Amino acid sequence: MVKPASSRAPAAVRRRPVAATAAGTDGASRDRILAAAHRVFRRQGTSKTRTQEIADEAGVNKALVHYYFGTKEALADAVFAAAAAEFLPTVFAILGDAELSIEDKVRAVVREQLDFHGAHPYLAGYVVSEAHTQPERVQTIMRRAGTAPLGVLRRQLAAAAAAGEIRRISAEHFVANLMGLLVFPFVARPLFEVIVGLDADRFPAFVEARKRELPAFFLAGLRP
């Protein structure tokens, strides 16, 4: 006697989450969620963003966001990791390029940094905040990009100092001074706007002007 087919699905199928099924049929969902998170974070920052807002922006259900990333913090980490993977290799290549002079390196790093933070204005504040509260998370993300190749820069700085063109400065202090000048207006933007009397509408113009002003200011500080 042939037994009637069971109406119940196999256990493995019954236990599969709805989000997992969606993930299997839409491989682009993760990238769509990342792009949506970037847009929402840019508009209102990470702390004010709800996972549902990211899901709505991406056109997916919230379960799918949790399926791929688990928490909003993990999603923010993923957005930062993707941005760092795009940005840091460019800066590292500039610093390690033996064909670029010190002046050319400064101008190129300023341009790349300000363009990056102008497009990702929420990231600097997020990373600094997380570096204080969850330092191991930020360190893990940054280690994936490697470390800056400073050997060429060290030799260039030493040669320029020996020739009397600049004062002596280590590569580490060179990078710290330059990056600090570049990142501070973004990290402390709410406070900075009040201090110098800027409003949100004028901040992009300030950043554009800084692309012209900062290289000359920084290079003048290197003179002996």
- Provide the succession of SSEs: HHHHHHHHHHHHH
Apparent shape: globular
Broad structural category: mainly alpha
What does the main sheet amount to? Answer: none
Which fold name is given in CATH as the topology of the largest domain? Tetracycline Repressor, domain 2
Number of helices: 13
Distance between the termini: 99 Å
Helix proportion: over 70%
State the CATH architecture of the largest domain.
Orthogonal Bundle
The average pLDDT score comes to 84
Estimate the strand proportion: under 5%
> What is the CA-atom radius of gyration, in angstroms?
23 Å
Report the top-level CATH class of the largest domain.
Mainly Alpha
Unreliable sequence segments: 1-25
Structural overview:
This protein has 224 residues and is mostly helical. 73% of the residues lie in helices and 0% in strands. It folds into 2 domains: 17-70, Arc Repressor Mutant, subunit A (Orthogonal Bundle), CATH 1.10.10; 75-222, Tetracycline Repressor, domain 2. Helix 2 (18-25) packs across helix 5 and helix 7 packs parallel to helix 11. The longest helix is centred in the middle third of the chain and has 24 residues, at 72-95. It is globular. Mean pLDDT is 84; it is low at 1-25.
Question: What does this entry show, briefly?
Answer:
The chain has 224 residues and is an all-alpha fold. It contains 13 helices and no strands.
Keywords for this structure?
about 220 residues, mainly alpha, Arc Repressor Mutant, subunit A, Tetracycline Repressor, domain 2, 2 domains, disordered N terminus
